[in-house]
Amino acid sequence: MKIIDILKDIFAPKKCYSCKKEWHFLCKNCLEKLWYFEESCYICKEYSKNFEKHFYCKNNDFYLDKIIILTHYRHFIIKKLIKDAKFYHKKDILDDFSIYLWDLILKYIDKNKNDLIFITPPMYFLKKIKRWYNVGEVLIKFLNKKYQINYDFNLIKKVKNTTPQSHLDKLKRLENLENAFKVNEKLLKKYKNKTFVIIDDVVSTKTTINEIAKLLKKFWVKNIIWLCISSD
Ligand SMILES: [Zn+2]
Ligand SMILES: [Zn+2]
Q1: Closest residue by Cα to residue 150 from 183, 113, 186
Q2: Ligand 1 midpoint to CA 26 (Å)
């Protein structure tokens, strides 16, 4: 894509990628038509109300309490929206998604918003410079602008530049992430008894988020929810 095309896109009026009506990149009608993700337990993938992990679904290697997902990545419109938001600087797409994520928060997280701390998987600083921004941070900022939430981008730092997880097999993924993240213990103490909500765009490999959850649970964090725009 040429720079001029990118600029044209940024300043063009918002239009729904699906029905072409103005004001949104994805209107609520179309989101409903493209389907919401089914409420399910992320371990067995079977139906589970409010995305809760079944009490009988134990997996000692997973540290998340639940994963809430908005919609399906396999739909080409969703895929295109996320790619444009991520790689073609159309940040306003994330503004639309932040509204839909907020609906999920109200529906599936049974907590007062003051008891929630929003975080996102950190990027290694060199990668962030290359990409300009971190999608999770942008989503959280949009959420904060509209709904005033508590968030912290300094709590967890990525201290190692890792290979993209999708290029590796399962064992190598774990090796790759070893000591990749660091938690700021001083900050964490402020958030006693809070629920952490990790915001992200796609549930691809769960290893990264699971590593972050594992790290937080080492410090006695009780409740960690992963809230994501899409999954396969
Ligand atoms: Zn539409
Ligand atoms: Zn289950």
Answers
A1: 113
A2: 5
Enclosing domain of residue 167: 3-231
Closest C-alpha among 95, 42, 29 to residue 232: 42
The structural domain count of the chain equals 1
- CA 82 / ligand 1 centre spacing (Å): 16
The two structure tokens encoding residue 30: 């179309």
How far is 168 from 137, CA to CA, in rounded Å? 26
pTM, rounded to two decimals? 0.89
Tokens 């609906």 locate to 103
Q: By the 8 A CB rule, do 78 and 18 touch?
A: no
Cα of 97 vs centre of ligand 1, distance in Å, is 13
Q: Of the ligands numbered here, which is closest to the C-alpha atom of 24? A: 1
Ion ligand 2: protein residues whose beta carbon lies under 5 Å: 41, 43-44, 54, 57
CA distance 199 to 229: 8
For 204-219, the pLDDT digits (tens) are: 777 888 999 999 999 9
Per-residue pLDDT averaged across 183-191, rounded?
93
Taking alpha carbons only, the member of 46, 62, 104 closest to residue 206 is 62
**pLDDT of 64-111, one tens digit each?**
999 999 999 999 999 999 999 988 888 899 999 999 999 999 999 999
Residue 42 Cα, ligand 2 centroid: separation in angstroms? 7
